[in-house]
Specification:
- The structure holds 2 protein chains of 2 kinds.
- By secondary structure, chain A is an all-alpha fold.
- In chain A, helix 4 crosses helix 15 and helix 10 runs antiparallel to helix 11.
- Chain A is globular.
- By secondary structure, chain B is mostly helical.
- Chain B folds into 2 domains: 53 residues, no CATH class; 235 residues, Orthogonal Bundle (MetI-like fold), CATH 1.10.3720.
- In chain B, helix 8 crosses helix 10.
- The chains are: A mainly alpha, B mainly alpha.
- Chains A and B meet through helix 1, helix 2, helix 3, helix 5 and helix 6 of A and helix 1, helix 2, helix 4, helix 5 and helix 6 of B.
Chain lengths: 301, 325
């Protein structure tokens, strides 16, 4: 999607530069001197600054000890300090919490990629009875929101003895219909001639899957990886319910619990927020294309 | 992509598979070889599907059925279940708190949808022009989308802090007494809406931008040659052609909107005085605070039914306003 965005598809573009009343369909030769264009730039850049302001303010707050004690905010901290970050990682268990979240996100992502790619191969390349029905059931599971499942899922985990364990947090995320759907689309686009050639060379399904299909669906796997990582890193409801002890908690849950009943140390809460955004920011900068695709193709955030 | 329409593809495959005209010259050897390969395929299919099918069955389908079963009982998650039939459902429908939760959820949508749609459309139109640095701008607008709801809620709770927040401070500078935001029952839902719209604006923008780019340039050019002004072109050409993207945004927003939880939990906790209690928050407190797992499950099924019904109604109703070029 981002590539198509950079290619200059006009859309409404001519309108921004169009002079009212001109009969010729040609645009003004130099749009830079167009007042409307300048105005548009100003508005859009101002909008971007407004969008960025909450992030900026979180960073400023995080390095201003005692933020929230005074009613007059200062845009340049008078006494900048990293004490809130130190607090997070020394007095509060955020080193452990970060590792918990990272570990769960990485394992969940890898498993989702594996299970998803295997199922995608089956649905795209193997013939078996009831294939379409099974695929429809997979798709139907996408319709079911997690919120409907939390109570029985909790009960199930209780029977399995997995309350307050990493496994309990992880298991419901190891396979998603979205992964299967996304990857099946990709596998369908791998030319079948490649499989046939490999079959003639004596390759079986396992070989075709690992040597031909997987290398050819790398972009889709990347989109899935970014998306699955984000889902896990940002997930809140299920970890909130299943993980009870502080040393097992994930980042968003621990962060939310920093809010005090009566007083809140805003510099610490904002420091935690900043740290929590960093992995996503890094991933976003490195793989913006895949992030945007992943989110846009599902509508899940 | 063509395989997306599986039933058709499959029917076609069948039609030429066993047709005698095609099979005759290949003979029996080939046929048994083929069916042997198919039998082998079946085992491979099992092996390839099991790692995804088992978790989906255990952690989606089974709990889904479980929710239905639990919803017919009174149960506090500990002592034995007692059958109440549809009692939980009738109790829910009569409970003012349930109605209030659905009402707040609708209120959230009524504020959120116009904000993100108009904002997202404006941005998409702006970024669809020959704008300098629009890749960077798009990146900036999209950044909140990848941020977790908890962070969004906490940051906005801080920005909208009634006494020491920057928003009310700024308002005070220009002589306006800011509201109590999340501490005021009249403003708590508005605070949630504001934070949510900020987070999702970039998402709506990306969807609409993709839709705009799919509009053929010559149609717009033709409208311009015919003398249609900017508003006219927007209203009569762009918006109708953009309706599939609009449809997607509305459907997804409604589905996500009914399931809103994280940001409300972290920002207002449903308060003050239950003024921002939404459906999922209510499910959560029923099950894990009041020990009413049966009622909670019934409410989750009710929510699912409502979302499903609204989505189906929209899909049926789209013929009236969605134009596929």
């Amino acid at each position: 999607m981002p590539e198509t965005a950079t290619s200059s598809a006009p859309g409404l573009a001519p309108t921004g530069a169009a002079r009212p009343g001109t009969a010729t369909p040609r645009r003004p030769r130099n749009p830079r001197f167009d007042v409307r264009s300048v105005l548009l730039h100003v508005v859009v850049v101002l909008g971007a600054l407004v969008m960025l302001f909450p992030f900026f303010w979180a960073v400023i707050t995080s390095i201003s000890p005692g933020a929230g004690l005074s009613a007059t905010p200062s845009f340049v901290p008078t006494d900048p300090s990293m004490s809130a970050y130190l607090e997070l990682f020394t007095h509060l268990p955020f080193a452990r919490v970060t590792l918990n979240s990272l570990g769960l996100a990485v394992v969940s992502t890898l498993l989702q990629m594996t299970t998803g790619a295997m199922a995608a191969y089956a649905f795209s390349r193997l013939e078996f009875r009831g294939r379409d029905v099974i695929f429809a059931v997979y798709l139907a599971t996408m319709m079911i929101p997690l919120q409907v499942l939390i109570v029985p899922l909790f009960v199930e985990m209780k029977y399995l003895g997995l309350i307050d364990s990493y496994l309990g947090a992880l298991l419901p995320t190891v396979s998603t219909a979205f992964a299967v759907f996304l990857l099946r689309q990709a596998v369908n686009q791998v030319p079948r001639e490649l499989d046939e050639a490999a079959t003639l060379d004596g390759a079986g399904h396992l070989r075709i899957f690992t040597r031909i299909v997987l290398p050819n669906i790398r972009p889709a796997l990347a989109t899935l990886a970014v998306f699955a990582f984000m889902q896990s890193w940002n997930s809140f409801l299920w970890p909130l319910i299943i993980l009870r002890s502080p040393e097992l908690q994930t980042f968003p849950v621990a962060l939310q619990s920093l809010q005090g009943q009566y007083t809140t140390q805003w510099d610490v809460v904002m420091a935690g927020s900043v740290v929590s955004v960093l992995p996503m920011l890094a991933l976003y900068v490195l793989a913006q294309r895949y992030v945007v695709q992943g989110v846009a193709s599902t509508g899940l955030k | 992509m063509s395989n997306l329409t599986t039933p058709v593809g499959r029917a076609a495959g069948r039609a030429d598979g066993p047709s005698p005209a095609r099979r005759a010259p290949t003979g029996h050897g080939r046929r048994t070889g083929r069916s042997a390969a198919r039998r082998r395929d079946r085992w491979w299919a099992l092996a390839f599907l099991l790692p995804s099918a088992l978790p989906l069955a255990l952690f989606v389908l089974l709990p889904m059925a479980g929710a239905g079963w639990i919803s017919l009982h009174e149960w506090n998650l500990i002592s034995p279940m007692s059958w109440v039939g549809l009692g939980n459902y009738t109790e829910l429908v009569r409970d003012p708190a349930t109605l209030a939760a659905f009402g707040h959820t609708l209120g959230y949508l009524a504020g959120y949808l116009p904000l993100v749609y108009v904002g997202g459309l404006g941005l998409a139109l702006a970024l669809n022009t020959a704008l300098k640095g629009r890749t960077v701008l798009r990146g900036v607008y999209f950044l909140p989308v990848v941020t977790s709801w908890i962070v969004v809620a906490l940051v906005w709770r801080w920005l909208l802090n009634p006494s020491v927040g920057i928003v009310n401070w700024t308002l005070a500078q220009i002589g306006i007494q800011g509201p109590g935001w999340w501490t005021d029952p009249a403003w708590s839902m508005a605070s949630v809406v504001l934070a949510s719209a900020w987070k999702d604006l970039g998402f709506v923008m990306v969807i609409l931008l993709a839709g705009l780019q799919a509009i053929p340039a010559d149609i717009l050019e033709a409208a311009r040659v015919d003398g249609a002004g900017w508003w006219r072109r927007l209203w009569s050409v762009v918006l109708p052609l953009l309706s599939p993207s609009t449809f997607f945004v509305v459907v997804i927003s409604l589905i996500n909107g009914f399931q809103v939880f994280d940001q409300v939990y972290a920002m207002t906790g449903g308060g003050p005085n239950g003024s921002s209690d939404v459906v999922v928050l209510r499910i959560h407190s029923l099950a894990f605070r009041y020990g009413e797992a049966g009622t909670a499950s019934a409410l989750s099924w009710l929510l699912f039914a409502v979302v499903l019904a609204i989505t189906l109604v929209q899909i049926r109703g789209q013929r009236r306003w969605v134009t596929y070029a």
